[in-house]
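Comment thread on ticket #2218

A.B. wrote:
> Attaching the input chain for the structure job we discussed in standup.
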Amino acid sequence: WLVKVSFKNSTVVAEGRAPEDQSISSFMENLEQSSVFSNVTWIDSREVNEPQGIVKLFNIQFNMESL
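C.D. wrote:
> Ran it. Output below, let me know if you need it in another format.
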């Protein structure tokens, strides 16, 4: 799930949480397959222990294409 999204010109930085690395990879692949987004890039991720269990915090960056 996304926690924070910030925009600067056509660049988007998304911060989120996921139960596993595969969920992050799938999200990035879906963005890459869209004609609206390009240059999808992993910035970082780390595991944290939260009340519901261990989750992955992640940051990715991508560009929004002009429509």
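A.B. wrote:
> Thanks. Noting for the ticket: The first strand starts at residue 2 and ends at 8.
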